[in-house]
Write a structure and sequence with these properties.
Blueprint: E1 5-10, H1 22-33, E2 38-43, E3 56-59, H2 64-74, H3 78-86, E4 90-94, E5 104-107, E6 110-113, E7 121-137, E8 144-155, E9 161-168, E10 176-178, E11 181-184, H4 190-193, H5 195-209, H6 221-234
Parallel strand pairs: 1-2, 1-3, 3-4, 4-11
Antiparallel strand pairs: 5-6, 7-8, 7-9, 10-11
């Protein structure tokens, strides 16, 4: 195996609220432990984007202003993104970045057309959603923990997360999954705080790119301890 796994960190400078670049560090660490060399490519609005050699796209959350800047730049790559997704390539979009791929975005007081790659849309909420929660997911048997801070809620029949317990503003569902597109409002960073989710997504990515590679167990004991400590304290 002599070729690198190419990771595109999209809008690394504009869409990186709440330390979401920690997800990139978690991804790189896990792949390194699997003896996989990674090539991290950072692109923003002044750059041309070539998806032909990209294995994973990551986009983090942003302010409403930067969200529109990213959207306007990404519109020119809509068809490439659709093909990328249909070809089972991976996209992880956290915070409000996953709104970009839907039909409608409520940005401050404006209603903005998204990329319309997927048929979900977001609805403006009367009260800002701020919560810390434990969520059920159909991706793995373990629950997901994370923080949310956003103005909109999603309407979809295919969410990633369903709340089990939240402290703060209640929600009915979160996120969206289609093939290897994974979008969620939940931050934290989500892959740092949820080692089982990190393992699931990256093992799937590895199997997709390297059909015959033997995947080994990565020592994430400290991550799992932090996860369990939160669960224990949260349910008291």
């Amino acid at each position: 195996m002599n070729n690198k796994l190419n990771i595109l960190h999209l809008y690394y400078d504009l869409m990186n609220l709440y330390g979401e670049s920690g997800n990139i560090k978690a991804i790189e660490y896990y792949l390194t432990q699997q003896n996989i060399k990674t090539n991290l490519i950072q692109k923003s609005i002044n750059d041309d984007i070539d998806l032909s050699h990209i294995d994973l796209i990551y986009i983090g959350c942003s302010t409403e202003t930067n969200q529109l800047i990213g959207l306007n730049h990404l519109k020119q790559y809509k068809e490439e993104l659709k093909d990328y997704i249909e070809n089972n390539k991976f996209i992880i979009a956290t915070g409000n970045s996953f709104e970009l791929f839907g039909k409608i975005i409520h940005n401050n007081s404006k209603e903005v057309k998204g990329l319309n790659i997927f048929d979900y849309q977001t609805i403006k909420t009367e009260k800002r959603i701020v919560n810390e929660g434990i969520f059920k997911t159909n991706l793995i048997k373990e629950n997901i923990i994370g923080f949310q801070n956003h103005n909109n809620k999603i309407e979809t029949n295919n969410p990633i997360l369903l709340p089990l317990k939240t402290k703060g503003t209640p929600i009915k569902c979160d996120g969206y999954n289609y093939k290897n597109f994974y979008g969620t409002y939940t931050i934290g960073p989500i892959l740092v705080r949820n080692p089982k989710l990190l393992t699931y997504l990256l093992n799937k990515l590895i199997k997709e790119k390297y059909k015959d590679k033997k995947i080994k167990k990565v020592d994430l004991k400290l991550d799992e301890l932090a996860y369990q400590e939160f669960i224990n304290n949260y349910y008291k």
